Amino acid sequence: MDIQKRIDKAVDWLRQQVxxxxxxxxxxxxxxxxxxxxxxxxxxxxxxxxxxGVILPIKxxxxxxxxxxLVAKKAQIKTITIDLSQQxxxxxxxxxxxxxxxxxxxxxxxxxxxxxLRARLRMSTLYAIANQLNYLVAGTxxxxxxxxxxxxxxxxxxxxxxxxxxxxxxxxxQWGKALGVPSEVLExxxxxxxxxxxxxxxxxxxxxSYIDAYLDGKEVPQRDKEIIxxxxxxxxxxxxxxxxxxx
Length: 247
Ligand SMILES: Nc1ncnc2c1ncn2[C@@H]1O[C@H](COP(=O)(O)OP(=O)(O)OC[C@H]2O[C@@H]([n+]3cccc(C(=O)O)c3)[C@H](O)[C@@H]2O)[C@@H](O)[C@H]1O
Ligand SMILES: Nc1ncnc2c1ncn2[C@@H]1O[C@H](COP(=O)(O)OP(=O)(O)OP(=O)(O)O)[C@@H](O)[C@H]1O
Ligand SMILES: [Mg+2]
Hints:
Radius of gyration: 18 Å
CATH topology: Rossmann fold
Structural class: alpha/beta
CATH architecture: 3-Layer(aba) Sandwich
Bound molecules: nicotinic acid adenine dinucleotide, adenosine-5'-triphosphate, magnesium ion
Strand order of the largest sheet: 3-2-1-4
Largest sheet: 4 strands, parallel
CATH class: Alpha Beta
Shape: globular
Distance between the termini: 49 Å
């Protein structure tokens, strides 16, 4: 099926999800990256009036905020910005202080604690807006991220619908081009933006092109295959509901 037809199908699917859920529209967090740019365009097409982009800076770099605004402008989607930097510092510093006071602080886990709290504060804020507007929260995870578990559990992974979860990363770029995502965003290296200098590929230790190839059933170097399979196995808990005992 050609890309335009698949895009139309995704747009129809979004309308169906809203109709079946009894909600009125859809919102998405807009980071200035390609995944959220594609989702923002899809929800705008599905709901020209009832779609919302939300820019949620947390000590974010200027470029991400500018790119987020650029994406929103090009997609002509209504957008609001809520800076959560202060709230993030408050929760993080208070929590770490109490942990330190109780001899429970782990220095080596500080960066990931800080990073995942960002994703979860964004999730909480998106749901506050969803409650206000009776909208669904759209996720932006693609097939490579879902397979490797490269997302924060109940953070960017905490969503109602996942419109691009079956697209490999190269397909996200193809759709982005077809939807008119600005070239600045298409050309940017994928980053979760959770700390300075973070890039997805550096952190995962493999590349999106190898993960995509693996998902397409193609050969990938043994080293990368092992990394992909290890990430997939370790993140199984993120793709299922919490376990409970038969008691
Ligand atoms: N086997 C198991 N069964 C049930 N639960 C299990 C578990 N193992 C860990 N857990 C729980 O899961 C937690 C670990 O998961 P989680 O909190 O998600 O943390 P974790 O997977 O360590 O970190 C999230 C990763 O996703 C990346 N990320 C986040 C957000 C956005 C993006 C992006 O691409 O934009 C990427 C981020 O850079 C980082 O590498 C543990 O603290 C524990 O609570
Ligand atoms: N500053 C932000 N404002 C609003 N939402 C954000 C922000 N940062 C991250 N998010 C949300 O978290 C999601 C996960 O980030 P991720 O980096 O995987 O996607 P992306 O930035 O859209 O694309 P890329 O992978 O190319 O960087 C984003 O798509 C977006 O929905
Ligand atoms: Mg990003």
